[in-house]
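Let's practice the habit of predicting before peeking. Look at the sequence and jot down your guess about where helices and strands might fall. Then scroll down.
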Amino acid sequence: NVGRYFSDRINGYLAAYPYLKNTLMPFINTTAGQQVFEQLVSINMKAYPQYFEEMRGIADGAKVDHLTIILLNLQTEVNVTRHDTACSDLMLYTNQAFVMAHNEDA
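Done guessing? Here is the structure:
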C-alpha cells in the first residue's frame, strides 16, 4: 500500500536524482560493482529480511524495480566501496553511554 500511495513521489524522486542514474547504477553494472552490491544485499537480507520484504512491497506498489529501491537504501555502503567522499555517521550504544557522531566530508 505504501508504494502505491506514494508512487508519484517515489517515481518523481527517482527521476530527479541524477546521482542514482549517473553514478550508482553505472557502478553496480560493472563487475566490481555487481560483486559489491550482491554481497551487501546478501549480508543485509540475512540480517534484516523484514526490511527487504518491505522494500520489495514499496517497489511493487510504485512499479519500480526492487533493486533500485534496495540500492537507494544501501547507497552509503556502496559509496564506501567506491571510496567516494561522503559524510559518515556513527552511533554507539552501551549500558554506560549513547553517542552519536557525524562528519561533513562531502
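How did you do? The mean pLDDT is 89.
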